[in-house]
Specification:
The chain is an alpha/beta fold. It has a single domain (7-248), classed as Ribonuclease Z/Hydroxyacylglutathione hydrolase-like (Metallo-beta-lactamase, Chain A), CATH 3.60.15. It is 22% helix and 26% strand. The chain is built from seven helices and 14 strands. It has a seven-stranded mixed β-sheet. The protein has a seven-stranded mixed β-sheet with strand order 7-8-9-10-11-12-13. Strand 10 (154-157), helix 5 (166-170) and strand 11 form a beta-alpha-beta unit. The longest helix has 13 residues, at 73-85. The chain is globular and about 55 Å long. The structure holds zinc ion. Zinc ion (ZN) is lined by residues 64, 66, 139, 160.
Length: 249
C-alpha cells in the first residue's frame, strides 16, 4: 500500500481571502494515482488547474463551511457538469464534509456531478489509498482536522483552529503536520479560532511531528516572523507553505 510516494502540493496558502493571483489555504494530496483536494476556497479552482485537469480529481474533503474553504465548490460543480455535458468525464465526485450544518452539507451534492459524504469525529473513512480520521478543532464554526494515513506515513491538517490540546494527540508522530498559523504573536488572545507560529510550533513539538508546514497565512506583516516563532518552539524543520511546491513523503 505504501509503495508509492505520498505527495502534498499546496494549492493556496492564504487565510480569509487570497492575495492577488493566489488562493486560500488548500492542498492537493496524491498517491498511487489518486488525487484528493483538501478544502476548496477562493482562488483554489483556478490555481489547482496548474497541477491537473478538474476532471482528474478523485475526491474533495472540506474541513468546515467558512467561505475561504468552500467558495469554489460551486464553480467546481459547474466545471464537472460542463465536462460531463461535453461527453467527457462522468464520474461522480465525492465531496466529504461534516453534517453539523445540514444546509451547507446539502450543497456538497449537485445533480449527478458531486455527492456529499458525511465525515465525523472519531470515525475513520477510507478515501482512495488512505485511512482518514478527524478531530474537532477550536473554531467559531464546527471544523474538523484531518489525518491521512497510508499505513506507514501520515499527514495531519489542523484546518482552522485555535490552540487545542487534543490536537497534539491527534497529530502524534505525524510525518508532516500542516498547521494553520494565521496570527502574529501579538494577536493571540485578540482573535479567536486561529493559532500563531509559536502555537503551531508547540503543537508540532507536543505531537512529536517530523516536519511542520505553516499555512492559512495572513496577507500582512512579515511572514518570516511566523516561521521563526514556530522554530523557537519546535526542533524539526519548519517551512511556510509555498503554493505549487510539492512535498514528497
Ligand atoms: Zn474558518
Amino acid at each position: 500500500m505504501a509503495s508509492q510516494d505520498l505527495t502534498l502540493t499546496p494549492v493556496g496558502i492564504w487565510g480569509g481571502y487570497p492575495a492577488a493571483g493566489g488562493a486560500t489555504s488548500s492542498f492537493l494530496l496524491e498517491q498511487a494515482g489518486f488525487r484528493c483536494l483538501i478544502d476548496c476556497g477562493s482562488g483554489v479552482l483556478s490555481s489547482v488547474q496548474k497541477h491537473l485537469g478538474l476532471s482528474e480529481l478523485d475526491a474533495v474533503v472540506i474541513s468546515h463551511y467558512h467561505a475561504d474553504h468552500i467558495a469554489d465548490i460551486g464553480p467546481l460543480q459547474f466545471a464537472r457538469m460542463i465536462d460531463k455535458q461535453l461527453g467527457g468525464n462522468d464520474r461522480l465526485l465525492p465531496v466529504y464534509g461534516h453534517t453539523e450544518d445540514p444546509e451547507q452539507f446539502e450543497k456538497l451534492s449537485y445533480k449527478e456531478v458531486t455527492k456529499g459524504y458525511e465525515i465525523k469525529e472519531d470515525q475513520a473513512v477510507r478515501i482512495g489509498p488512505w485511512e482518514v480520521t478527524f478531530c474537532k478543532t477550536a473554531h467559531p464554526v464546527y471544523c474538523l482536522a484531518m489525518r491521512f494515513s497510508d499505513g506507514e506515513k501520515s499527514v495531519v491538517f489542523t484546518a482552522d483552529t485555535g490552540w487545542r490540546k487534543e490536537l497534539a494527540e491527534f497529530a502524534a508522530d505525524a510525518d508532516l503536520l500542516v498547521a494553520e498559523s494565521n496570527l502574529f504573536e501579538e494577536h493571540v488572545g485578540r482573535v479567536e479560532g486561529h493559532m500563531s507560529g509559536r502555537q503551531a510550533g508547540e503543537l508540532a513539538a507536543k505531537a512529536s511531528a517530523k516536519t511542520l508546514l505553516l499555512t492559512h497565512l495572513p496577507q500582512y506583516g512579515e511572514l518570516e516572523r511566523i516561521r521563526t516563532d514556530a522554530e523557537k518552539a519546535f526542533d524539526g524543520p519548519v517551512e511556510l507553505a509555498e503554493a505549487g511546491k510539492a512535498y514528497k513523503l
